[in-house]
Amino acid sequence: MKIRYPTWVRTFLVGAMVTGWLPLAAQAGPRDDTLVVALPKALTTVDRLYSIQREGLIVAELTDDGLFGVNTDTLEFEPLAAESFHWTGDTRLDVTLRDNVRFHDGSTLTADDVVYTYEWVLNAASETSRGPVIRGWLDSVEKTGPLSVRFNLKMPYPMALRDMAVSIPLRKRGTYEAAAGDQPHNGIGPYRVKRFNVGRDIVLERFADYYPESPKAGAAIRNIVFRIIPDEGTQQAELLSGGIDLMMDVPPDVADNVSALPGVARLQGNDIRIGYLTLDAAGHSDPDSPMTDVKVRRAINHAINREAITRYLVRGSAEAIPYACHPRQFGCEADGPRYPYDPEKARQLLAEAGYPNGFSFKLWAYRDKVIAESIASDLKAVGLNADLRYVKLNVFSKMRNDQQMEAFFASYGGGGTADASASTGVHFIANTSRNFTGDASLADTVLAAERTIDPDERRRLYRTALNRIAEQAYWVPLFSYSQNYLLSPALLLPVPEDGVPRLWQAAWRPQP
Question: Regarding the domain delimited by 271-482, which CATH topology (the fold level of the hierarchy) does it fall under?
Answer without folding.
Answer: Dipeptide-binding Protein; domain 3 (3.10.105)
